[in-house]
Backbone:
């Protein structure tokens, strides 16, 4: 596949005071190429507890392809493909929530804990065009990642 019609992919998760930051980072790295930079920001929660935000933006086409290939391995990829009209907003952004615990184990599934926002290229920038482009690339990557 020569072209990936995405401008960037943002990934974000939180590490709460009760969690091990390294394990949370490992969960996020399930989707990232090796040695990818992760930004960290620490804030204080409502009850005075520490909350660390781990986030990154993937912009390089090969790195975006890597993230999308991981998504295409979702067991629920057919569900995601059928829900793209609802998962892509009017600003051409695709949104997914992914399971942080599964990601720590190297598995990719829908769930809670990790947020993915991917800006889909669409010319002209319309919802329908973005849905079509996202569907095409995820379907192609799904076929490439299926076992022979």
Residues:
């Amino acid at each position: 596949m020569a072209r990936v019609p995405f401008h960037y992919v943002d990934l974000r998760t939180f590490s709460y005071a009760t969690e091990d930051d390294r394990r949370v980072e490992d969960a996020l790295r399930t989707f990232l190429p090796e040695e990818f930079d992760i930004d960290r920001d620490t804030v204080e929660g409502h009850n005075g507890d520490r909350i660390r935000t781990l986030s990154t933006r993937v912009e390089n086409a090969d790195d975006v392809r890597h993230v999308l290939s991981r998504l295409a391995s979702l067991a629920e990829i057919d569900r995601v493909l059928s829900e793209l009209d609802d998962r892509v907003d009017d600003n051409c952004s695709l949104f997914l929530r992914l399971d942080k615990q599964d990601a720590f184990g190297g598995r990719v599934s829908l769930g809670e804990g990790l947020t993915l926002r991917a800006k889909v290229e669409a010319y002209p920038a319309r919802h329908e065009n973005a849905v079509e482009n996202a569907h095409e690339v995820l379907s192609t990557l799904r076929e490439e990642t299926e076992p022979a």
Remarks:
- The longest helix spans residues 127-145.
- The chain is about 35% helix and 30% strand.
